[in-house]
Amino acid sequence: MSSLRHSHHALGETPEPARATRRCLDRAAAASLETQRSDGSWATPAQPRILENAVVPLALAKAGCGCPHQDRAHAWLRQAEPQRHDAFTAAADEWFRALALNPAVPPAMPALPRAGAAHRRRLMLLHTIGVAAGAPNCSPRELHAHATAALGPEGGASLTGWHRAQLLSAKLIAGHAVGLPVDGDTVAALTAEQAADGSFHAMPLVAATACLALALVAPGRAATRGCTGRLLADQHTDGTWRFTTFDIWDTGLMVRCLRGHSVFDTRARPRALDFLARAQSPQGGWGSVSAAIAGNGLACDADTTGSTLLALAGTGQGRRAWPAAAGYARDHQDDRGLWTTWTTARDTVAQDTVAHMVAGIRAHGPEEVDVTPAARWLRRQHRGAGGWTADWYVFPGYPAAEISPAVGWHTAEARAEARALASAQNRDGGWPAFPGGSRSSPAATGLAATVLTRCGTGTPQARARAARFLIDSQRDDGTWTEPDPSMCGPRPFLTDVPSQAHALTCRGLIDLLRGPPAAGAPAARA
Questions:
Q1: Using an 8 Å Cβ cutoff, are 151 and 171 in contact?
Q2: Cβ atoms 161, 193 nearer than 8 A
Q3: DSSP letter string over 184-241?
Q4: Distance CA 408, CA 415 (A)
Q5: 34-56, pLDDT tens digit by residue?
Q6: pLDDT in tens, 480-501
């Protein structure tokens, strides 16, 4: 059982609501223990979506490996629903599904809204698949020009590896479509992105676009065979393919969110901490995916590094990891005192990434890396825009839950976020995954509960209603079902990773049981 101390006044005038909330948390913690892997990690596959399950079968068919693998994915696609959180994604999903189910007569690519940079980036992906499939409204000459320009004279050296691999694939596919001679240098550059196990940056979607290119310009080569073999191995028993599995991110998040539950701390946390310590890269940071998932995993990023530092706070593993992590933080801090998520020239600064780095550094050695400019920057962003934003999840409470620890739970900015959340509670006691949504999400509710409780905002009745929603929506196995996908990747597409949503929900329960901090009490760890 949990050893969390609580006051029943946090959830009502009688002790029963707190006891029911405790039972709910204990069931959730037990469910978490059941999914921990032998190496100490959590590595829960994402739920299937149309994107991978349209593109991967198309690539395998081009490589001569279609049936029966294609048939199983098509059976899933026929009953799949497009994502409808924005017009671009809904239209793209509809087109991808139609293309996959009728490749002999590929549908024309529709006119798509281009509201932002993410839409423009994904438009090139759609053009790439459309050209490979021979779809109308997809110009191979235009694609070739755009891919060549995006790679630049340095061949995409300043880009992330997966972005570079997709552009190289696009260039080869477009060149083949217009009858250009095979560009051996581009083929070599693309195969250089491939890991020994045949994967491309641990992402089936990236491997599928590479497979489309290699099947056209390098059929029968070892790289092509390795790519198709990896895609076949990545197919799940239900016939689907999934977005990549984020074992390092998932494990750090689980530790951060369930820390303080006695059974979790005793039975799961020590092995998880050891896994995170082993996953530290020679550069001192952490990537979100380890080599245990595919290839070499993913390169270090500041978001996972900051979050992992928070998970390791106050532990022996953290003290041993800190010197190298401090070096990574200093090496990748820009002239403004900020961090981009990826170490690429074209990346932009994300507020949740900066907040994780600020809070993670403060939890270990704030005197070694100056985070004051970054914390001030976060407060200025709120004052300038009237709110915070996050790049990783769409939950309305995620920015406040992750950024407030970096600037202070009782700052004016954090309290403003809490007041806005308090006013958005649904009638059933929960919060929606998207602002203004009608369906309540357990993870969004857990995040809102964390913000309201730690800021000391919102009434006991509102917190009690949140607890009741989480109790009533919990499944018999201790988990919850999310009504909508919530994690961005690749933007604007979303994915649903159950372990991540589970962790965020559990943190809300823990905070509801603890109740608002007493005046002058130290803030809980992020």
A1: yes
A2: yes
A3: HHHHHHHHHTB-TTS-BTT-HHHHHHHHHHHHHHSTTSHHHHHHHHHHHHH--TTS--
A4: 10
A5: 999 999 999 999 999 999 999 99
A6: 999 999 999 999 999 999 999 9
